[in-house]
Queue: 4 jobs
Job 1
Amino acid sequence: MKRRLTTILALMLALVGSAQAQEFESAKDAVKNMGVGWNLGNTLDAHNQKIVDINDKAYWGQQGLESETCWGQPKATRELIHMMKEAGFGAIRVPVTWYNHMDSNRMVDQAWLARVKEVVDYVLDEGLYCIINVHHDTGADSYDKNGNLTGSHWIHADYNTDLLKTMADLVYYASLWTTIAREFYDYGPKLLFESQNETLDKLNSWCFASFNAPGQYDEEIAKSAYTAINEFNKAFVTSVRTHGNMSPTGEDVENAKNDKRNLIINTYGACNGSGNWNKHLKDPLTNLEIPDGEKNHIIVEVHAYPSIVNGSTNKGITTIKSETKELMDGLKTNFVSKGIPVIIGEWGTSNVDAATTDYAARRGLMLEFVDDFVKQAKDNNIATFYWMGLSDGHYRSMPAFNQADLAEKIVKAYHGASHQGKYPTPSTAAVDYVVTYTADWQELNLYSGSAIKLSDYKGIRVEMDNDSYVGKLQVKIYAGSGGSDSAQPLTGASSTITFDAATTGSNTQRITLQTMIGAQKAVLRDAFLIKKDGTEEKTEISVFWGCTLETQPRETAINGVQVAQVDDGVIYNLAGQRISKPTKGVYIQNGQKYIAK
């Protein structure tokens, strides 16, 4: 009997051990299960280098927690991540820059670690996959027109030409990943680590290593770069697997999980190998080495920003689909078919950060492109993470989508047309816009975009939180063809500015709210373009220049206050929009419904 119990106990322990071993899904399953993803870009990865000489001790740790907003994005919130979950995104990539929060010995500031952990928890608490990485510690160094260094990074793909420095950086890099891994040693399988982001050679070469060399290739520089990428990836894996299974204080623990965590390694520059205009384009793929011992928990990452135009002419969706297929085929041949899963950790179009994006200039084609791109990636078992757009700037603090149709198209391309996601827009978000001006004549966009015909509109209505801005703010209308700029001061808490097409021309691409007295803070409720028939269109508010913009929830319920009926004669439609001349339909006037016939 005792022997039988011992056997049963052994079997039970074996089953428990097996269950623990299977607790972390394979990398293939993780890529499949994360669905479609989005990048929380220009947030924890933002940085502002004042001192660019890496040999200067002051290069390190130049910023505190304020760095999160130094590139114009608001602080990340749970509400933003929840919005992404409800839209249908299954994973969030959280790029993180570390050097501006590390001392000269590469020790990470504890407050920064805590903030990174807080944002990771936002993602994981929603049941989403989360990727964190080492982001702008790598990248392209920048120079002014005189060749002076104006921005630099401490991790470069340069192994042979400066071996001592590279070896020292490898040690520091390994130490950084040990710190990160230990901070998250007990986190579950939906947290993934990514080695580094777009690491480039000493010539800042994109497309493939040594592309910027004379003749667009240098064998020695290329070999040095690919060796460095592989060495950094090995150091990353070793640090996480071997040294990361301890508590942050270095104590051995029983519930450490980094030995089986899914890890992501990047190709050189995150280059994807697409195209056939140079025989070296595939080199970043073919020269990538999978670290020894890694089989079931390793993923390869590339980035993709294809152009959907030839010069100023649209390529056409057939050509775009063909180019996407060539990209996917290359990733399938080099990795997926060999059992190595792939994610496209960043993607969009080549002018994603341009003043006029493809979304603004050729939206129909853009929507067709993203639909096909996600579908082709899914068919090849490749996960995609759209770069940063969709919800951008102050829209994130609402939270709302400023590219709701694009977000919906991406999600439905993966989940199918019947997917029921939620895509809140600025028009549905009850928020106030808090603008801070710091100098004379700074401007906030009340309207910007494709030219509107002023002949179709008779004015713009601006709603402030009170009437204290009279004599302090003015509405500036930028002239269209055949006209001249004009400006009219606000007249009260609610100001209607009438357009004069005779002087402003036939169209405009910008209407702003401009400070007349320099530094001040103002709270804007809303702005509406007024059509000739009296109906109104809510505009999208954004920064033009100089000022800063935040949003805050609008107070919609006040308890303990009795509200008297005001018979002011103002007419509203059922969407709550103010109407100056109603057409046929149902409206609200003096608190009562009435029908205009």
Job 2
Amino acid sequence: MKQTVFFILMLLWPFVAEAQQRSEVWSPDRGDGTFVNPVINADYSDPDVCVVGEDYYLTASSFQCIPGLPILHSRDLVNWQIINHAVKRLEPREVFDKPSHGNGIWAPSIRHHNGEFYIYWGDPDYGVMMVKAKDPAGEWSKPVCVIEGKGMIDTTPLWDDDGRCYLVNGWANSRSRFASVLTVREMNAEGTAPIGEPVIVFDGNGTENRTCEGPKFYKRDGWYWIMCPAGGVPTGFQLAMRSRSPFGPYEYKVVLAQGKTPINGPHQGGWVHTPFGEDWFVHFQDKEAYGRVVHLQPVDWSSGWPIMGSKGEPVSTYKKPKSNSTTIVNPAESDEFNAPVLGRQWQWQANYDQTFGMPTAFGTMRLYTYKLPEGSKNLWEVPSMLLQKTPSDEFVATAKLRFTSKDQHQMGGIIMMGLDYSALVVERVGDEFQLQQLVCKAADKGHEQSVNVLATLKPTQRDKIDYQPAIHEDIYLRMEVSHGQCRFAWSSNGKSFKPAGEVFDMKEGKWIGAKIGFVAVETSPKANRGWIDADWFRVTRR
């Protein structure tokens, strides 16, 4: 049946690719003209947004995860769906072909200029990078470095009324050994090379404005505006600063802070003026293991400054922005794996290699076992994990899969991945399988994972031929997430689930939230690979 569905979808794929999905676990649109924050309850760190006509486009940091630079589309700033990724591979290959956790794409900005979309970001190790496209849902150019050098991050261009182009950026102390300053320089009109030297236009050192970063550059009513966060990620606030010259001097004001609300550190995002005459600010809130989720705030310019939220404090609920759309849609989570391409919610931990796995014509996603490096103590350096963001504070993720093993000590299953991680896997031991919970604390520090054997499972099928024989295990694996904790369960029939292992306290990754998905690894030096065939992955309510 799934093969029949696959071939039908092959024919209809251009239309299916744009199918709209509604989440069972988080939808901000209340259906009565109001919304609840966060508008995206997933880790889209450092969001930025632009508007073209009545269409809004959002991108966010993706660091080393591939495909990178997600492109989300909305018609009302509340209902979003993933339509593309702008980066398919990061360079240099020798760095990003393996997990380079926390490096790569930092705090991008998206702009529309002269009929083209541009995204700029700072790679803290290599310089200011840029991609562009005429259609955000289509093919993007390969990344080009427009300014070489270490430490430049959080870059935003501004094309002025006279066609001149300026670029603002922050600085990463970990590379440059200075931070909390913002610099502006002039670029050529194409935005592809600097023609001026950087000028420090704001200095937050030694003040409450420490850690000023993530600047966004705008022009409004003859004023040049830089909007940036300061004060640190979990505890900071949003600044707006203005000048009559792009090079300053700038006066500044705090325009959004936590105040008496439960929304901590509300900052770093993008301002947008809508075609309906309204002003809104998209920003993130750091929720630790759940990552940096996306909020939407109204903006009031009546005082001459962009005061955000309700008198400078973030709102939890509010009336929706004016729009001509009534569609409720959310970023994809569940996946039936019936399509000929990987769902847009999925990312690898490094540049993709086709030996990691690929969709099949049988209505499954195949993930091959990855050979762990000699002496490896945990899964931190595995590039082939297939993961997605956590979609809500509470949810259940269930996978139906078949694990096929060709040799000893091949394993596969589901994982909650972060600086600490836990996985529920089946491992071949002899001619049987063991159901195991893997747990590792401080995986990034090279700590050894623990293995808790939960059950011994008879194979559900054995190959009858002698050539490269395999044994197979058909199994349902589940994780239930609530209050920052993950509980595993398993089933042989998909109906009756048994608890599996200990409760795991979720932990964020390097600059990202914890991620969920599949892992398949092995230690055999010469064996033919085993694999997971994932039939489906479904995210539902608890």
Job 3
Amino acid sequence: MIVETGHYALVLALVMALAQSIIPFLAANRQDQALLRIAPRTAIATFILVAVSFVALTWAYVTSDFSVLNVLQNSHTSKPLIYKITGVWANHEGSMLLWILILALFGASVSAFGGNLPPTLLARVVGVMGLIAFGFLLFILLTSNPFERVFNPPLDGQGMNPLLQDPGIAIHPPFLYLGYVGFSVAFSFAIAALIEGRVDPAWARWVRPWTLAAWVFLTAGIGLGSWWAYYELGWGGWWFWDPVENASFMPWLAGTALLHSAIVVEKRDALKSWSIFLAIIAFSFSLLGTFLVRSGALTSVHAFATDPTRGVFILILLCLTVGGSFALYAWRAPTLKGGGLFQPISREGALVFNNILLSIAAAMVLLGTLYPLLLETVTGEKISVGEPFFNMTFVPIMTPVIIAMAIGPLLPWKRADLFAAIGKLKIAIASVVVVVLVTFWLSGGPAFALFGMGLAIWLFVGSMIEWANRIKLFREPLGTSLRRMRNLPRAAHGTMLAHVGVAIVVAGITGSQAWTTESVQSLAVGESTEIAGYTFELSALREYQGPNFAAREGTVTVSRPGEAPVLLYPEKRVYTVEAMPTTEAGIRSSFTGDIYAVLGDQDSSGKWVTRFYVKPMIPWMWAGGLVMVLGGLMSLSDRRYRVGAPTRSHKTSPAAKSALPAE
């Protein structure tokens, strides 16, 4: 009965999403006050119905109801409860339901917290989100019904991909979807603004917190996915430029550009058309990622579906959404006149420079991702575009972005003196020289390591200098600086943290890529090998039975003169139901880096294949990502983001209220 309730709720959600697609636009066009009050409630009703459906599917997984095909194909009674729950979205149908749930949640949130928006703008935003929800609800009901029944079901299920039975991958998809779908809000604001023909600083203040929230979630999702690949797959890497990894990275780049361009709209009433374009692009990239994962175009651990019917349906949705939005943009964008004028050397100019390079970087990632697929479709020829291409194109594009990140915040609006701003960065320049020399003295290179460490310290110190200038540190008494720090908007602290996080990530990438040492060998129990000054000894082996797997665990003792020994416990697991092996790396993390051990199979001589790594500075990458997320959360807590534009005056007539934006 609960499963049927979930199915019926999903059908009702489709009907309600249709109402959400129609009523708000009618209300806005007719200036009907009664309908304008009703319009936001349709989004809340859609969310409630989708939530009921999602809870029903979760219940089917928790109770192992194998009469539901989706549960039969992706669960088993022996699975731990946590993986029964996360198994809901570890498959195509369930993950699409989660996607729609998050979309409905954002629509309901805009409705609940949009009381300070002009009623017509709010109605149109809700209507656009309703159209998106209707399209995906139609898709899931016609091609991917998660509640499809099985007659005469077996007593047990077929299990779930063991690679997905991990805490990291369990929480990675929800964060990733919160980022993907979060950009639908910025997209909806952009379409609503195009329909109304008006983009102003108030619009930018409304759209920025939603964009920032999506950016924070997507940053966390990408970081979690990278961390999972590093410790779970056993290959010692953290990023492979996989097409599906790229599919999450492209909206992140576009969203980062949108965050910065919206600042210019808010502060200087400029870059209006460009900001609308970026909002469309960011969500379009999110939809492209959904298509790549679910179309069968890719073979990847990330890919869910290979059914061409589903791929064609999503492709149609993608074309309608992207094509329709760009057609509207081409028609209405010329009416969006820019306001404030500025010189190239100014804070606005720095943000434009940032936007141009971020957009070029996203375009290069798009080219490298889609070109092999297009070539294979047209000619049947298969080629691989991998790490060398992306490193050779992406790194040179992002280098000037990072350099500008330290200079731009020091420039005033409208017009600036570039040399005066650089003059404030004398300590940063000196720090670069010192760090490069020390790095060369300690390691001797390579050249890209010297460059990367210099770039990281440049951004780190430059960001701290800009923050110190804001509170007049060392220029006024300490008590005054502390008071200014407390009174500084939280968004300023958040910006500093986000930029510092990028610097830490750059340092982590540089160190791990430049100085990682790897050794592959076969060892008997009691034998050892030397790597990067460490002695790795395979001390013991044991076998044990997990809840739904059989495991062989090695004990690796890692020692170095003058330091206490470290014990690592790499495992090789075979999941009983799926008969699929997985690798569990043994990792010891510290401030300076990771020691990493992988246990393989037994070779023909009876010894065990082992792989050991010493990976300097690699934890800095995830620490930097965490700092970036904290910076975003700090900015979101800023009162200006929570309040947004002031509410409309209640002295205005109802008709005037609906026609005037908040100031």
Job 4
Amino acid sequence: MSLQDLSREAFAPEGALSRAADQFRPRAGQTDMAVAVARTIENGGALVVEAGTGVGKTFSYLVPALLSGERVLLSTATKTLQDQLFGRDLPRLAEALGLPVRKALLKGRGSYLCLHRLELARRDATLPDRSSVRSLAKVEEWAQLTRTGDLAEMPGLDERSPIIPLVTSTRENCLGSDCPKFRNCHVNLARREALAADVVVVNHHLFFADLAVRESGMAELLPSVRIAIFDEAHQLNETGVQFLGAQLGTGQLLDFGRDMLSAGLQLARGLADWQGLASANEVAARDLRLAVGRHAPGARLRWVGEAPEHVPAADWQAALQGLDHALQQAIDGLDTVSELAPDFVRLHERASMLARRVSAFLGPAEEGSVRWVDVGNQLRLVESPLDIADAVREKMLGEGREEASRRAWIFTSATLGDDERLGWFTEPCGLESAEVRRVESPFDYAAQAAVYVPRTIPKPSDPGHSPAVAALAGESARRLGGRTMVLTTTLRALRTIGEALQARFEGSSEVEVLVQGQWPKRRLIERFREGAGEGRPGCLLVASASFWEGVDVPGDALQLVIIDKLPFPPPGDPLVEARSQRLEAQGRSPFNDYFVPEAAVALKQGAGRLIRRETDQGLLVICDSRLATMAYGRRLMAALPPMRVLATREEYLERLSGLCAAEPQ
């Protein structure tokens, strides 16, 4: 029996899945997707599938992958889905199908405790404060108990803790086989388990980091497999460009200086002026930051000439040359002690790598790349390709190489574009020749949800826009008893709307206002899901950025999603500008071929927070009248699920009242 037939049989009414899961119901779309995945595994090639919310795409790709009996690589955009696949979905399906499956979870180095750096940190007399000393003590205690070394398993460790960089390794500072702790290294243990596993679960960041490592001739981190599946594939391009270009950050430089000082004082005291070398490195990094001057946090400065915009070229070049000089001094100092310990060999390699990057940034950018500087507390110099198309075609698909033709590549997400060929995804990812399928959601959106575009709200460019959004959200959440999520397109709007709503409900027992940034994301979502009960009010969550996707709140805890304005890419962003200029050079329209598709996909992602299962009911409000008045508005509305459109405020209030009167699910 072919893999396609086996897959179809598993999803049949009396198949393996129905016998194993009480809530399983056959869905034509889910079965069709599984058969398409099975066919691609059998024949090789690339398959792109947009599978709407509720299709059950995870089972659609896992079932044929497991039934194939071959080794499989699964990559996700988030650690949350990575953990879900490894800890829940894979074991459940393997049991249902009666298959013995060896699985492995593989994360980046920064997720694992480094035993050697833990020992160095223990002897480090320059820890920043008492809180760090206490955190280090807790890590040491946990280190005696853990088998995996995965810091996500350590209770009470804040993911933003300053101690984490001190007890984890990076590709730059890892000593490899020369490390005295190599035998018990948690990264190597995870790597060995991955090499022996049938299914390896990674994330996109790790996949592209490994792609970059392989290109540099270093040992591969991930095992070679014939079948690779990318879930949450809509993030693939933006993740990939981070790793396929070049970056230099003042944070990297400061970490290098700190590591050099610590190793020098512990292993070679008196053999070089470690304080002076580290200080020179720190001063050079600080001078580079000062050369840029003051800018809003998160600003991106375009860089098309000798220096970034608004930065005097002479000051910028002098700062880079000063940094190069400080690194050369460090290289000379490390040369004198390189035979004493492998730590110094690795530090020498790091200093040389940083010096090469400084030298590259002193010259012009590579053709087809774009440069910019990210400004925050630290500075980050970036040179990036405009997309990952060339890398995918050459390094993944191996176009033109016969041995690559049998590899199977599956890419899937709930949102991959707003046209039949899913050009928003396939074009920048070099997948124009892939088979493309769209599987519609099984939800009855016309009955379950409605969308409302208020015509009287000020335009997004009007200073009164965000206060008006806050007023609408506050009144609606009060009527609904919380159960509301406000998604903003900018951090400025997040602050304005969040502060206005917190002021409105201060001291109130009606609604608890949650704002992104006040707690870690996981805690905010947990509180929001709890909703009202046990004397607590329902919740109104104001969020931006990562909350537009990957947030799953089924049931009546979320029944109203408000989007402040259409999520077009920021036109002043250097990467956006460069992509627009490339389209213009090709005789295409940047607005129609880039800005509108980007907004359509982001809008679909935000709207996707509303209806998560067949029994959900909800309202989507988009506070941007351009959706109703501009010609491109029809295209954006068509990209949304087929919800009922509410034309008037009266219809909106009536539907809101209906949600208020509905029994909790």
